[in-house]
Amino acid sequence: MNTKRLSVHIFGLASAALLSAGAALAADPAAVIRVGSLYEPQNLDNTAGAGQGINEAFNDNVYEALFRLNDDGSVTPALAEKHEVSEDGLTHSFTLKPGVTFHSGEPLTATDVKYSIERVTAETSKSSRKKSLSTIESIDTPDDKTVVIKLKSKSISLPYNLSYVWVVNDAAGDITAKEDGTGPYKLADWKRGSALSLEAFDGYWGDKPANSGAIFSYFTEAAALNNALLTDAVDVITSVQSPDALAQFEDASAFKISEGKSTTKQIMAYNDRVAPFDNVKVRKALARAVDKKKLLEAIWGDRGMVLGSFVPPTDAWYEDLTSVDAYDPESAKALLAEAGFPEGFTFTLETPNYDPHPITAEFLKAELAKIGVTVNIHVITANEWYTKVYQAKDFQATLQEHVNHRDVVFYGNPDFYWGYNNPKVTELVAAAEASDTEAQQADKLREANRIITEDAASNWLFLYPQIVVSNTATTGYPLNGLNAQFFLRGIAKE
Amino acid sequence: MGRYLLRRTFVLALSLIAAGLVLFVLLRLLPGDPAAALLSVGADEAQIAAARAQVGSDQPIWVQLGMFLSDLARFDLGKSFVSGTPVLPEIAARLSVTLPLTVASFLLAVAIAVPLGIISALRADRWYGALLSAVSQLGIAVPVFWIGVLLIWLVAVKWRMLPASGFPMKGWQDFPGAFRALILPVLTISLVMSASLMRYVRSATLDVLGADYLRNARALGASFPRALIRHGIRNGAVPVISILGIELASTLLGAVVVERVFALPGLGSMLLLGIQQRDYPTVQGVLLVSTLLVLLIGFVADVVQRLIDPRLRETVAGR
């Protein structure tokens, strides 16, 4: 009896080993992936203002959610095994995957999920996702494996929004300096100002990762980050800040450069409430006066892409709208004259003090001077931007990089800092959210985006490239890094 | 001497309190709100209000001052607005990088500058005396980060002899790793620092060489080395120690540049991040601790000078 069971086990082990050997030839399952990053998390709680670094290190690595936002922009179930929606679309029932345990050893139950969602919607939450979950009316847990969410209004993006909600053990308490998630990795060590290390969690419910852990090393200086890869102190760096730096990694036998699609958009946002930017013709004139291709080349060389609207290609409602207000300084001048500014005008451009904003500002100043518009560049810190521009809305125009995914819906909110107010768009954004199918949602948002683009609500300049560089031994890392996520489980090292 | 020490300690405490008050006011004169560091684009009014209440920036400034002073009286530097962790242990952890970096750089710089400075003064008429003088002049002109970048490129990237940046996760528990991590930063600081120190040592030595007491000692029959050691070094040391105190203090504060170039988790990088995020407790804590250290260095330099030079003792303690 014993012998028989033993032989079965041996067979099982052998075939498992064969399978994994076939999947990744010569990959070392004991390898620790060394990641270099510029985004150190400020704490370990994504609802407490930790910054994008915590998404990079923890999303899907340490914490999982009911759904996962994949690297291609699709959303698939993670901890939810089944998702049922009632006829009226207001009641969503989720059945949890069986056999899932937290790193502390406690099993996952429905009350943990309820607790986790309420953490994000709580009054003290700093999560940028809080608003998108405000449609939730109540959360019930009829049994250990079932979560029932009742909504005030239909919400097609509920699974997407839930992909941002970490499932945390309800007994974990304060998680700003520790964790208790269900992911394939647990936190091993965290040294502020320096590094964070993760190790594979033995009790993980799913497939074992292709490595045994990871170390995120944090840098404040891009040059130091690049040197770390050059000197083999890290295996992969998550973001290259300028094309000049790439020349160091040209040696294809040692390094691999990959370019994915980011969601980071460099835009000049006008305050659409104030003159002259309350005038559509002025906004369209300024859009046509800027040679975005030249600007992109100056900053990113031949990488990245010119934007015609606020929607990046990883959103399902993307379409190429670069022809709407294409570069045409002559018609820009004509439009300005029609708007009552034949001699141009002067405005102040609030410019964050970090790259690439100052360069973009100088470029825009030169371009707009050609149509008679004078730009006063006012340099401010990120913190001032937040209080002066975002909160107080005390500005004429500003440069900003918007990093979020699916964020065109911001134009449906007339109270947003840029003050774009078109009731038709607000209505379409709301209707899209109440859609029955994702196709319908995409149609509605596509329509809204066309209107926003025709209105030249802001001046969308370019989409940053998402550049990841690694040594040639390391493979399987995500290329797009949506929502700053950096999935570790598939990364293999020879 | 005892009375002097007492008075000097009192002045030190008073300076520290004054520095704390100035810091508090200056920080709050900066535009921006610490609550913003906790929020991102998409936050609504209620979230902004909650964040302001959490960091206390919704309170009037005198209420904030009262809380700051009462915390300080209990030696509590508060909790970081952004990370929520207490500031004092964080500063202690950062000092375990910054203090060894500063002290080692200082000692190395002194070890380089004192002999070379004396040689370049004694042999000012020889070619190598002039060369040393010229090299030190060049060293003063070169910015510290440039030396750092150059050393990284040469030693770490080209030759792969030492790590380019970073500090081991286990800190000094990984002694060889921590030691290797600090070699290049220490070299960077001490090379630049020894250049300026050398010039002070050189001019102090030249002053001593031309002094009457040295000529007298020689006239009374002392050999030149004996006269120099017995009378020269003691006299020459007094102005050099003032300079050393100032140099040590500026190295401590100037380490911020080198820490950034070498990605070291020291006090300077903590301060920079704190300023960017308007994290008042962090900035106040770091600046108070570094002010204290600078004042202590000045204190020690003053005391040492009085131990060396009896004339200084009499003028102050006599009153």
TrEMBL record, chain B:
Record GO cellular component, one term: plasma membrane
Entry annotated with the keyword Transport: yes
PANTHER family assigned to the protein according to its UniProt record, in alphabetical order: DIPEPTIDE TRANSPORT SYSTEM PERMEASE PROTEIN DPPB-RELATED (PTHR43163:SF6)
Protein name: ABC transporter permease subunit
UniProt keyword Nucleotidyltransferase present: no
Top-level taxon of the source organism: Bacteria
GO molecular function: dipeptide transmembrane transporter activity
Family classification: Belongs to the binding-protein-dependent transport system permease family.
InterPro entries in UniProt: BPD_transp_1_N, MetI-like, MetI-like_sf, TAT_signal
